[in-house]
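Protein chain data
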Amino acid sequence: MKKLVEQMWKEYGDEVIELEPHFRRLIEELRTKTSLTYPNLPFAPDEKIGGTITLTDAKILYLLIRTIKPKVIFEVGTWIGTSAMIMAEAVKKNGFGKIFTCDFNNYYSLSYEYNEYITYL
């Protein structure tokens, strides 16, 4: 596992460092939008929607998708779409790939700009 992380960081670390502010903004915007749309969902201490991946999780997920370069990704447990959004950013950068995502609850809150990469089932 350590070698994989080192390989990913060596190849895409600079890219992730450059994208970190973008990821932070995307995650915060999605959490805020979802908090306003679904005010009865659980909130985190920062008074925005809780239960979603962290910025650190997002960076690792992005590195994995950039390194492995999957053609198809199937995500179960979408919640509001944070991880799907980050995976779409990586798929877009890879130049190919499709994400299929589903959840028992329907709180998916991503904007239509991700429809090219994500199909919500």
